[in-house]
Design brief:
Number of strands: 10
Distance between the termini: 36 Å
Order of helices and strands: EEEHEEEHHHEHEHEEHH
Number of helices: 8
Oligomer: single chain
CATH architecture: 3-Layer(aba) Sandwich
CATH class: Alpha Beta
Helix content: 25-40%
CATH topology: Rossmann fold
Strand content: 25-35%
Shape: globular
């Protein structure tokens, strides 16, 4: 399979603090990678670099062979870990906004996903629960014809029913010619999604590989591996 993402020695420093210490990662087409680690481990920093929102201090990356930078912004769809929509917006306003902003935005797919999410087009952001806002943002992110989808803590703070709908949407959106990275510390809820996993701590990948292989070799679930790796955090 072709590589959707390759990173080579990615580092990021904020003044004297090292947020990333040399990340080497490869994600092939048709794969869903779980990026797992405790808060402050570097997950969000890595995703922001891949999304083009931050520049690495050192190292580089490519998406479908295109060097990271301006050229990859049109290939990457990023779901941030916090809401960026205006409170006055209706769901349909957000869809119109994305349609104007992103040339690869598929409005028909967005409307279909809105229905699947059981969200009214006229519902306003300020009237939505956290779970509803998360589902709307996921709809917007997945309605782009991107090659790499980056989801930063898509389950954070939402109820179990919303979590299940979000997980179903990720499965429903999966395609063989793209890849998805899901950053999370709620491993038990989503580990069944992952083809590959990468555990990150203090800006370094401490364990990575095929999820099924790791389960067989270690005799543990991905959730239990997470607990073992980070139980002292």
């Amino acid at each position: 399979m072709a590589a959707i993402l390759e990173t080579n020695g990615l580092k990021k420093n904020f003044f004297t603090k090292s947020a990333l210490r040399g990340i080497d990662l490869k994600v092939e087409s048709g794969r869903i990678l779980g990026l797992m680690g405790p808060n402050g481990s570097g997950k969000t920093t890595l995703l922001k670099i891949l999304a083009g929102l931050q520049k690495p201090t050192a190292g580089d990356f490519s998406v479908t062979g295109v060097g990271g930078g301006y050229g990859t912004k049109g290939l990457v769809s990023f779901l941030a870990d916090r809401n960026t929509l205006y409170p006055w917006m209706r769901a349909i306003d957000a869809i119109d906004f994305y349609g104007d902003f992103f040339a690869d935005f598929d409005r028909a797919k967005a409307m279909d996903m809105l229905s699947f999410m059981k969200l009214s087009p006229t519902a306003r952001v300020r009237e939505m629960s956290k779970g509803m806002i998360e589902k709307l943002n996921l709809t917007l992110a997945f309605s782009r014809r991107a090659k790499l989808f980056l989801l930063d803590e898509p389950l954070g703070g939402v109820d179990p029913v919303a979590r299940e709908r979000i997980v179903s949407t990720i499965i429903r959106t999966w395609t063989e010619d793209s890849a998805i990275i899901v950053s999370t510390h709620l491993v038990n809820d989503v580990e069944r999604l992952f083809n590959d996993v990468a555990f990150i701590d203090d800006g370094e990948i401490v364990l990575s590989g095929d999820a099924e292989t790791l389960r067989a070799e270690r005799g543990k679930s991905i959730d239990q591996l997470y607990i073992d790796l980070f139980s002292d955090r």
